[in-house]
Here is the input.
Amino acid sequence: SVEGDRRRVAGLLSLGPIFLALGLFYSPRPQVFGSSEERPSILFYKEGLNATILVRQEPDGSRTLQINDFAAAGTSYYYLRNQRMMGYLPLLLHEDPKRALVIAFGTGTTVGALTQYGGLEEIDSVEIDEDVFEVAPYFEDKNHRAIDHPKVRKIVNDGRNFILYTDRTYDIITSEPLHPKRAGTVNLYSEDYYRLCKEKLTANGLIAQWLPFHAFRPEEFKSLIKAFQNVFPHTYLWVGEQMILIGSKKRLEINWNRLQQRIQQPGIWRDLAEIHFNDGYAILARFVMGETQTDPYLRGVRTITDDLPYIEYSKSAEDTNLFPEILKFKRDVRPWISLAEGEGGHFEFSETLFRKHVKQVEQILKGRSLLMEHQEEQALQAFQQALETLPEDAYLQRFLKDFKKGTS
Here is the structure.
């Protein structure tokens, strides 16, 4: 019925902060000047040469960076889980990173995450709009005042142009441009762009690419992965709040002991504990597939190139459910795990605990899929089953609390 549809939509919209951060819906219109009784307050507004930059404080106290009409980043719990893992995932997987490059500064959260690892000697952050650097202090409680960190070099330039002309090479490159369907952005998701990045990676380097779930048809989403995989045959997919692609020039080896030891470092531990990712099992369970495991998933999919950036001109697909295929093709990360002694001693690897985390992630993906089908009650059951698998899991406890609050 029409009334039933209205109630369902109202219930989904009440979950807005969660859904937006999870990439479960996409709203191209700014939400700042609406008629809600709980309006966000505007902390910063500037119409610059490249974009209109706005910082708003939400009713829950979190802050959001809006670029033109797009909520690009923020400090809410779900935003932080994505932005911090963009820095920490390649940092935890790399054997000994010394120099990092971050394409798109945003709130500075990813750069701030990288500053927490003492082994990094240099962090270059490229941002096309200097006004974005200007608003960094509004997010300093989450970005560790990254803009003032002595290891961080602020570069005002187009990210692709910088990569083309720099003579530097990097152990870690993270790429977090705006959504690929935003005008002028798709060339930071093309094969041609990734080839430039590959040239600037060291032999053991890793690239991390953010990939949102929302506004894509399945073939479009897979085309973005295909463009990456065509350049990096050693491609690995990880599912967090959104997708993170990891690429390298050689086969990845995940040293379990090194991974656990790095998580234990004080600054890294505090950051990951805040977003409930301070557990190696929780991170490994988020692995989706790697290398030739991606072949069935990407079979018959066309790529994205500078000459054929077709998704830039396609209509947004707001209600498309990408999760059934992701769940169907999810594979085991254990072929890439090494239990060799790391840089900080030995950490026991429990097969039982690992399998529980994997089962939990599968239930979470099932729940997210059901949400896309507007089956809120069944989704709630899936999330509750995920919590039953690991009853002490603080992320699921937090998520279920927010979910129930939004649907009440």
Notes: Confidence is low (pLDDT under 50) at residues 1-14, 23-35.
